[in-house]
Design goal:
The protein has 138 residues and is of the alpha+beta class. It has helices at residues 36-54, 119-131; strands at 10-16, 22-25, 28-34, 59-70, 79-90, 93-102, 105-118.
């Protein structure tokens, strides 16, 4: 893992809201607005850009946390601008704070965590978890 960043470094991303971003639960559209879960996806992607530049050969990054405070709506066709700020790197865990805005309107704030580890270790962990026979509640 390399770290070319200092605390306070920024990555940005923009996303135009489409119907694919609406909250649809159990086949029913709840609101024709940018959903909280779509916000989470795009917040994680915005902060993931740091990880992409930190990875070295044989390494992988994996999300560990997303916290979202969804403050205001974003409507279909609006462009949401995300700003991720490099908060800290503790060991191999990166944390970022985020803001999402439509123009001056604050849509959401949040925080993400991502861990950088070896691809081999991550693949091994996934294989071990898949092989565990977990009983299904009936």
């Amino acid at each position: 893992m390399k770290n070319p960043f200092q605390s306070g470094a920024v990555k940005t991303y923009t996303h135009v809201v489409t119907p694919a971003d609406f909250a649809v639960l159990d086949g029913r559209t709840i609101h024709e607005l940018y959903s909280t879960f779509a916000l989470g996806r795009d917040m994680e992607w915005t902060s993931r850009q740091f990880v992409e530049e930190m990875l070295e050969a044989g390494e992988a990054g994996i999300g560990t946390m997303v916290h979202i405070d969804h403050i205001a709506p974003a409507f279909e066709g609006e462009t949401v601008a995300f700003c991720a700020t490099f908060e800290a790197l503790e060991g191999r865990e990166l944390t970022c704070t985020l803001e999402a805005r439509v123009g001056p309107r604050l849509v959401a704030t949040g925080r993400t965590g991502q861990r950088i580890t070896s691809e081999e270790k991550l693949t091994g962990r996934f294989a071990a978890l898949r092989s565990v026979d977990v009983p299904v509640d009936k």
